[in-house]
Amino acid sequence: MKILMVQKFHFYRGGDSTYMFNLTKLHQEKGNEVAHFSMRHPKNIESEYSGHFTSEIDFPSLLNDFSVRSAWKVLTKSIYNREAKEKITGLIESFKPDIAHFHNIHEHLTTSIVRPFYNRKIPIVWTLHDYRLVCPNTSFLCGGEICERCLPNKFYNVLFHRCKKGSLAASFVAMLSIYFERITRVPDRISHFITPSVFLKEKLAAGGFDPEKITAVPNFVDLSSYIQSPEEKDYFVYFGRLSYEKGVDILITAASRVKNGTLLIVGEGPDEERLKRLAARLGADNINFTGYKSGAELREILAHSQFAVLPSRWYENLPFSIIEAFALAKAVVATDIGGIPEMVEDGVNGYLFPLEDAGILTARLEKLLSDPVLRREMGRRGREKAVRMYDSRGHYEKIMEIYKKAIDASAG
After folding, report:
1. What digits encode the pLDDT tens for the residues 154-183?
2. pLDDT, tens digit, 9 for 90 and up, residues 127-146
3. Same domain assignment for residues 35 and 182
4. Which end of the chain is more exposed for a tag (fewer CB within 10 A), N or C?
C-alpha cells in the first residue's frame, strides 16, 4: 500500500510528530511505501520528498514584526495556504498514493490540501492530536481555565474571550479559520477520523461530528525499546514541557510537603524560571531540574525512578508520557481529567487526583513513596496495560482496518 503521511513539522516536535514518525517506521517494516508532505524547516529530518514541501512559515516572527503585510500573510497562510495546495497536488501526481493520513496540518499547511485528494477520490484518514476541530484554541483552555463555550459550533466565543494567546487578532484568525472549514465542508470530505482517546471522540461528537466516522485508537510505542530495571533510585519524576497547562507548579507545591523522596523535573519550556523560583520560595531542596532529556537518556532516568507524575490542568488527550511510564513498569499519579482516566486506573496502576488539588496529590505521593511493594505492583499492572493496549502490533492491525474501509468506501 502507498501511504502519504501529512504532518506540518517533519522533525520531532511534540507527540503528533513522534507518533507520525513511529507510524511511518511501522508501515515501512510491514512493507508499505510511505511518502511525506510537510513544511520546510531547518530542523527537518531528511526526506526524499522535501522538494515537494511548502515554504516555512514563522508565525511568531511575523507577529513580532507587525505590519500590514505581515498581518495579511498570517491571515491568508493560516487559513488557506495556496502554495501548500499546489505542492501537494504535485506530490499526489508523482507518488500516486492509495490513501492519505493527516496529522497536525492547521495554521501551516491548512485544509487547503484536502480538495486535491477529494477531487481524485483518494481517501483521507485524519488522526487528531488535539481538539482543534471543535475548539479554535485547540486545548479547551481560556485564560488558563478549562472552557467548553464553543461546543457545539459557537466559535465566536474564542473572539469574545480572546482565548488564543490572549490576543484579539490571534483569536479572530482562529475563529475565521474554523468557520471557513465548516463553510467549505472540510469534515464531510474526510473519510474517517482517528482519536487516540475515547474522550476526544466524545468531544467531537458533542461538536456535531458523526460518531460513526470516528474510531478511538490509542497511540503506541515499541515496547522492545523500553527495558525495565529492577533497581529503583530515590526519586520520582515528571517529564514533559514546562508550561502552565502542565500543572508542574501544583506538583512542586505537593512535593515540597513530602517527608522523603526527591522529585526530578525533566524538560524545558516557558515556565522553567518561574517554577525554579517557586521551588526556591518553598524551600524545596528535594526538587531537581535536569533540563531537556530524550531518547535512551530519558528512558534510563524513567527506568530507575520510583514512579511518574502528570499533574495537568488541561484535557490531556492520550499522553505519551503515561504510555512510556507504563512500558517501563512505573506507576503513574495524574489528574483525573481528559483522556487520562482511560489510562490510569485509580488504585490499580497508579492514582488519580482532582484538578489542582495539591493536598490530595501530596497524600498520593506519600503513599507511593512509603510503600515500595504497592508501587511495584502498580507498575507491573501498568506494564500489562501497555502490552495489552499500546503495543505496535495491535495498533497496526487497527490502522490497516480503517485504511481498508476508507479505500473500499471511496472505490464504491
Report:
1. 999 999 999 998 988 889 989 999 999 999
2. 999 999 999 999 999 998 99
3. yes
4. C
- The backbone torsions φ and ψ at residue 328, rounded to the nearest 5 degrees and listed phi first, read -100, 15
Q: What is the mean pLDDT of residues 387-393?
A: 95
Q: For residue 71, give the C-alpha cell.
A: 498581518
CA-nearest of 374, 242, 313 to 365 is 374
Triad 164, 165, 167: Cα angle to 5°: 80
Q: How far are the Cα atoms of 139, 199, 214, 238 from residue 209, in angstroms, in the given order?
A: 18, 14, 8, 35
Average pLDDT on 237-260 reads 96
Query: Cis ω on the peptide bond leading into residue 152 (within 30° of 0)?
Result: yes
Co-location of 171 and 317 in the same domain: no
Judge if 400 and 371 occupy the same domain.
no
In this structure, the answer to whether residues 235 and 328 fall within a common structural domain is yes
Please compute Rg for the chain using Cα positions: 22
What contacts 24+ positions apart, CB below 8 Å, involve 150-158? 150/207, 151/203, 151/206, 151/207, 152/206, 152/207, 152/208, 153/182, 153/207, 153/208, 155/179
Q: Would you tell me the crossing angle of helices 372-389 and 358-370 to the nearest 10 degrees?
A: 100
Which CATH number goes with the domain that contains 182? 3.40.50.2000
DSSP class of residue 55 equals P
Domain extent at residue 162: 2-220+392-411
Q: How many Cα atoms sit within 13 Å of 267 on the Cβ side?
A: 20
For residues 22 and 157, state if they share a domain.
yes
Share of the chain above pLDDT 70, in %: 95
